[in-house]
Amino acid sequence: MPTHNSSMNPSQVNFNSPRKFGTTLKSKCKETFFPDDPFRQFKNEKPLGKAKKTLQYFVPIFEWLPQYNLKMFRFDLLAGITITTLAIPQGISYAKLAEIPPIIGLYSSFVPALVYAILGSSKHVAVGTVAACSLLIADTIGSKVSSKDDPTLYLHLVFTAAFITGVFQAALGFLRLGILVDFLSHSTITGFMGGTAIIICLQQLKGLLGVSHFTTKTDVVSVLHAVFKNRNEWKWETAVVGMAFLVFLLFTRYLSQRKPKLFWVSAMAPMVVVVLGCLLAYFTRDRKYSIQTVGNLHKGLNPISIKYLNFDAEYLPSTLKAGIITGVIALAEGIAIGRSFAIMNNEQVDGNKEMVAFGFMNIVGSCFSCYLTTGPFSKTAVNYNSGCKTAASNLVMAIGMMLTLLFLAPLFSYTPLVALSAIIMSAMLGLIKYEEAYHLFKVDKFDFCICLAAFFGVAFISMDMGLMISVGLALLRALLYVARPAACKLGKLPDSTLYRDTEQYAEASGPPGILAIQLGSPIYYANGNYIRERILRWIRNDEGNGKAVKHVLLDLTGVTSIDTTGIETLAEVLRMLEVKHIKMKIVNPRLEVLEKMMKSKFVDKIGKESIFLCMEDAVEASYDFSVTTEKQGFEEQRSGVA
Amino acid sequence: MPTHNSSMNPSQVNFNSPRKFGTTLKSKCKETFFPDDPFRQFKNEKPLGKAKKTLQYFVPIFEWLPQYNLKMFRFDLLAGITITTLAIPQGISYAKLAEIPPIIGLYSSFVPALVYAILGSSKHVAVGTVAACSLLIADTIGSKVSSKDDPTLYLHLVFTAAFITGVFQAALGFLRLGILVDFLSHSTITGFMGGTAIIICLQQLKGLLGVSHFTTKTDVVSVLHAVFKNRNEWKWETAVVGMAFLVFLLFTRYLSQRKPKLFWVSAMAPMVVVVLGCLLAYFTRDRKYSIQTVGNLHKGLNPISIKYLNFDAEYLPSTLKAGIITGVIALAEGIAIGRSFAIMNNEQVDGNKEMVAFGFMNIVGSCFSCYLTTGPFSKTAVNYNSGCKTAASNLVMAIGMMLTLLFLAPLFSYTPLVALSAIIMSAMLGLIKYEEAYHLFKVDKFDFCICLAAFFGVAFISMDMGLMISVGLALLRALLYVARPAACKLGKLPDSTLYRDTEQYAEASGPPGILAIQLGSPIYYANGNYIRERILRWIRNDEGNGKAVKHVLLDLTGVTSIDTTGIETLAEVLRMLEVKHIKMKIVNPRLEVLEKMMKSKFVDKIGKESIFLCMEDAVEASYDFSVTTEKQGFEEQRSGVA
């Protein structure tokens, strides 16, 4: 084994002239916007091949359709039928949540699913509407235009919001800004989903208890207040039916969770509830205590709605807000879910490409009377478990929805509201993940706080505020990471050339007269002052303990980047140490850091002879200048320990 | 020299049980809020000594006064007189800039200077008003209440803003939130000051050309438009006098810059201009083209203004905005300047203590008819060059101002506006630092952009927008640092045990079958996806080049922290590599990272035997499992190279 010996064959720091600006800019842009290197596959292709690959890249259906066969279709057909049976009750339920006509929910599983089947790159995502975004749309647009007083205008604004969402999502994808979605942390989403589930469940008390006067606010306090204020409207018949449905749905879910092969039981259950509910409503339609039903579902495909898009300046702030916030949440849900199923199969999902697909899905959808759609978790999981092989299962669902719209829609007019409430509640209860929150609590308290902030913010203030507070906290943490980077004092491990954190390895001890410090994370304006203070504090501490410090060795292995303020900080430290007659040495500066040090003449100030490739060399060099006896004493002490 | 040999005496990763939550929380809070360890000096004191030290800590005058002697006083007296002669013209000028009566400018160098002398911890800071903040106050409050239409209300709001600034600054100091000021980067301040200097200079064209109709906007376009629209009001007499003054002032500054011993020439010059201007105005007072003067300066000390503080809900948003923005800028200027002079003398300034001092200075000031004060650069530099020894020079200035207010104030009524304009312009021209901007351009293009954004934002949009855009860009950069941490592929340097970046050291090459990767910066939610993609890309690249990858070694030396998403990312990578039959190994996890890995059971998943203390050990261990011949081939190849 070759060993490193500085005196025999000194390894030098590479002081080549800095790379050109163009080179670094190109490499940075690539890392920022194309970390997954999507154009790799085009490199060694001829022009025609390139054109073909480009088409396949942007329109994935051309990639999988040529290889499609009957065996795959059998799987996709089954999966498609399963998700269609789920899409009908979910579509109607979530449309009620968004306070738009229930038929829109059915429309929204037809056109967007077609678009996604052509453009989507994930095999498992099943397109549909989602509860959280539906409520958020109702909340945001409802604060400007009441869905009761002016339902037409309200509906048009919902279409407009979907259009804006689509443009926003597609733009993010084209601009390769998938990075934005990365800033919605897992903790935020866990808390947000939990909080949303709580308020949606509470809202369903309206349907479950048959209350007709209700609040438009979404927070827990207002909703509970509205429920109990209208005690006199509670109908026990509705409540009993609703509880029965709910218990049935929860039981089927429990069954599927215990025996994954029975996944279709829970997938079919909502449809069963709807059918049972319809029958019940139909036979009790002439009674005194008739059950409230959805009502009014016409036959026919999606009418064109492009002419209804409303960009009036008065409503634009609301639609923009609704469009962008729901757009981000929908992307986070859709992409995260596509990705997690792809990982199970060891495949990759290109987040930016998915954004473009979701974007076009919503743009086209909003022109055909659809509101916001994405890849909801429940539907996608059912799709995956049903064994779908390609995006063709979405195609099957689209055809299923088309047939439903053409022939069966009026049958669903009898769907009782209480059945929808039960379906929504059972779906929502699955989104409250206490184990997840407990895991966060155990591993990382700050992540737990971020999660709690989203949960309580959504539950007690409002959905958008809760989300923003939580994202703000997460960003604050990211900034704290960079403002207060962990630095540590290094000591030499016995019988090795390794220098490690003295706090982590108690047996590591610093050579006398030398203070070895490892800095982590980029050094720049937000942490320059801190790093200076921290270094000075270590020197004071050592001096306070009676140890004279003659050399400060800064290990920059963990410093990946530096800005002008960071270099000034190092220069200041150098100046302050010079006054104290302490020598400063730099160990292992990374490429970018060394380049900036050279450009800013810091290398000339400190001298090339003070920059070393490894800690051992720097320590050796320190002793060459120090009194020799000191080193001997240390070596003897070391061998004594060994 | 002891060498590290893994087979003889293996150094082990320290798998001690994680530290308690309380311990880590305490240490984090200390690093975040008390990085300079201010209570170190109290540790080994008796109760009485502690009380004394505490008093000295919070009221620094008790620290330096007991050691004060006549020799120090002689220096402070000289410095105090010098800054008094600067304070009078500056006070009047900047009060005009803030559109308040000029006497307020004189008041503002009296009471705050007294307070700072007692509470301030910097020896060099000289208290006074600043141009940028004065203009910003006029801009913000003037947009709500016109200083012309209702000067009394306007003045009261200015006092209120100063009060809010004081409370805000003191609160930041008490809460140890000095960290906030760290987020105003040097690049932002350079650009902001430059932009402010430009618009203030242009505004002075009003006084210099004697224009009486003018705009209240501050951006370049509006100001130039106002100047040229009112061409008919230009007075050549005023312009000639103004230019003469300006040339004189710039010449004295040039002289002082060339010969630092003549610093007093440029310090006295503004006073000379004022006196000359007064004489000129006095003797031409009966002419037709009389020169516009300040007018109306009464004898007498600061009247009490606490009863005028106006917290009316109608004006509160404006005063809050003005108070907080100017508070941050004033702090950044005052603290940065105190710090940079302290560094020259190898002393320390406690930023949080300074904030408290500035805060009280403004609170007390606002109750005694003063507006916003801080430690302006020009005055502080003069104070330092005059040889001040303690904060007593501020005391001398306060006494000088008191005498001026009591006896000399009416004499300054004749100060011509054109003289003030010349003084402001000459001061502002010194704040445009092109060399600084050029340095930023050379060293770091992104810093240069941040600087330009502040400069053009201030010059062409508005002062607060310019500041916010620039701070936003700087934050974006900080977030990009954490979202896209630099990672690199490591190779072994010939004839050593060192593994270094293959891009930086061309001679470093990876052992066959092994992909060694060094990650930098914390791994967490914002960069988890990126890191996963990056690792997979390296594997694909190696495989694309015909090199089979059998082991992936992740060097976590530079990873100072990790959150739950980060650990999930590592677990995902582990899972994906397992599918590809690639082994993953972790090298040198830091204390906090290892703790989280243990808490989240990641260590159990990967196995303790896959976590190594150094790269060499991990490579060795990889070969123990690999085919032996491969390694031999590599070793032979290596020795061939050497």
Could you characterize what this model shows?
2 copies of one chain form a homodimer. With 642 residues, the first copy, chain A, is mainly alpha-helical. Chain A folds into 2 domains: 70-293 and 305-478, no CATH class; 488-641, STAS domain (Transcription Regulator spoIIAA, 2-Layer Sandwich), CATH 3.30.750.24. Chain A is 62% helix and 5% strand. Chain A has 27 helices and 6 strands. Chain A has helices spanning 21-33, 47-58, 61-64, 70-97, 102-107, 111-119, 131-142, 151-174, 179-182, 186-209, 220-229, 236-258, 263-283, 316-344, 351-367, 377-385, 392-408, 417-429, 434-443, 445-461, 463-483, 528-544, 564-579, 591-599, 602-606, 615-625, 628-641, and strands spanning 488-492, 499-501, 514-520, 551-558, 583-587, 611-612. In chain A, strands 2-1-3-4-5-6 form a 6-stranded mixed beta sheet. At the A-B interface, α1, α19, α20, α21 and α22 of A face α1, α19, α20, α21 and α22 of B.
